[in-house]
């Protein structure tokens, strides 16, 4: 698919999946979408391997925007991008935006064929500067 | 460094983390999300399980592999932070490091951790232990002095206000508690100092 992909990373699988449901309702299958949540051991948290898997699943040559909740999700997402490495890493951006609103807005922007830069800018508009 | 030493280091580090897992979790429960002890223990047990494989590698490769394993198994924000410390150390260290190389590599690894956590010294994090230990190493302090400096540095995070990580949400209420990451870093410094000190 040529549209930018969206990855949702929450400490809670329920939050991640619920956010993905809301995105799907907005944009249908127009946007590659994947989510992950939980520490991989049944508890709350995020883990790098699952994030790398979600990026693969939502991969688009147009790039991937990642929406995260709390700090560890951001740190783990940045680690995942680094481990994926170039040339793909330069097409993956971790957004600074609220996870639910950011994911819905970014996906809506992406569904219209916007560039990764535009998708990320739309999500960032939701953050207090 | 011989294979025997690396294997001793891994065993001692995993033992130290396991022995203090409950203490680390209690520290994290006070001002974080309460999973630090369990997370660190899981990560270091995963490293321990592959001691033989790491010991067979040259030191830089072994450290990078240990870092990657920690990233994948510790979870939380600690996984990438401690993982980055070891991965960056592996990138900079030589196969048979002298004091100058060790000091330089350790300094680079601390910079990598700071970049990963978007943090700096004074924000109530593991950096508040790493940096004074590095500075003491640079001026030639002994292994046992380094271990004491690490403990004192972890202790010195108690009155600090957290500016990074989950504890920062608490603002002033983070004051009065030791940072769990600083404590686990001090534990690891003491462990390494003891093993390397034994050798010297």
UniProtKB/TrEMBL annotation, chain A:
GO BP terms, alphabetized: glycerol catabolic process; phosphoenolpyruvate-dependent sugar phosphotransferase system
A Pfam family reported for this protein in Swiss-Prot or TrEMBL: EIIA-man
InterPro entries reported in the protein's UniProt record: DhaM, DhaM_N, PTS_EIIA_man-typ, PTS_EIIA_man-typ_sf
GO function terms (MF aspect): phosphoenolpyruvate-glycerone phosphotransferase activity
Reaction it catalyzes: dihydroxyacetone + phosphoenolpyruvate = dihydroxyacetone phosphate + pyruvate
Boundaries of every PTS EIIA type-4 domain copy: 3-129
EC identifiers of the protein: 2.7.1.121
GO CC annotation terms, alphabetical: membrane
Keyword terms: Kinase, Transferase
Function: Component of the dihydroxyacetone kinase complex, which is responsible for the phosphoenolpyruvate (PEP)-dependent phosphorylation of dihydroxyacetone. DhaM serves as the phosphoryl donor. Is phosphorylated by phosphoenolpyruvate in an EI- and HPr-dependent reaction, and a phosphorelay system on histidine residues finally leads to phosphoryl transfer to DhaL and dihydroxyacetone.
Subunit text: Homodimer. The dihydroxyacetone kinase complex is composed of a homodimer of DhaM, a homodimer of DhaK and the subunit DhaL.
Record NCBIfam families: dha_pts (TIGR02364)
Protein name as it appears in the record: phosphoenolpyruvate--glycerone phosphotransferase
Species of provenance: Mesorhizobium helmanticense
Lineage, highest ranks first: Bacteria, Pseudomonadati, Pseudomonadota, Alphaproteobacteria, Hyphomicrobiales
């Amino acid at each position: 698919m040529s549209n930018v992909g969206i990855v949702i990373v929450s400490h809670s699988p329920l939050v991640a999946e619920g956010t993905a449901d809301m995105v799907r309702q907005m944009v249908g299958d127009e946007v590659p979408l994947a989510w992950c949540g939980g520490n991989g051991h049944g508890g709350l948290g995020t883990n790098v391997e699952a994030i790398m898997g979600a990026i693969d699943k939502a991969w688009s040559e147009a790039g991937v925007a990642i929406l995260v909740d709390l700090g560890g999700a951001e740190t783990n997402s940045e680690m995942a991008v680094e481990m994926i490495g170039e040339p793909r890493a330069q097409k993956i951006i971790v957004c600074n935006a609220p996870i639910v609103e950011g994911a819905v807005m970014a996906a809506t922007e992406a569904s219209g064929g916007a560039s990764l830069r535009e998708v990320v800018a739309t999500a960032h508009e939701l953050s207090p500067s | 460094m011989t294979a025997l030493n690396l294997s001793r280091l891994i065993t001692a580090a995993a033992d130290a983390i396991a022995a203090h897992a409950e203490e680390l979790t209690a520290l994290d429960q006070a001002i974080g999300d309460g999973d630090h002890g369990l997370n660190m223990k899981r990560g270091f047990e995963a490293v321990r399980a592959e001691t033989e494989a790491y010991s067979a590698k040259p030191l830089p490769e072994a450290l990078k592999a240990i870092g990657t394993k920690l990233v994948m198994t510790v979870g939380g924000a600690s996984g990438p932070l401690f993982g980055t410390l070891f991965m960056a150390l592996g990138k900079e260290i030589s196969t048979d490091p002298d004091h100058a190389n060790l000091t330089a590599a350790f300094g680079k690894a601390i910079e990598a951790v700071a970049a990963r956590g978007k943090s700096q010294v004074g924000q109530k994090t593991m950096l508040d232990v790493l940096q004074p230990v590095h500075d003491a190493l640079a001026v030639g302090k002994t292994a046992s002095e380094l271990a004491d400096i690490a403990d004192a540095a972890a202790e010195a995070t108690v009155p600090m206000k957290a500016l990074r990580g989950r504890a920062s949400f608490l603002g002033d209420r983070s004051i009065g508690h030791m940072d769990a990451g600083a404590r686990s870093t001090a534990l690891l410094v003491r462990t390494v100092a003891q093993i390397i000190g034994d050798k010297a």
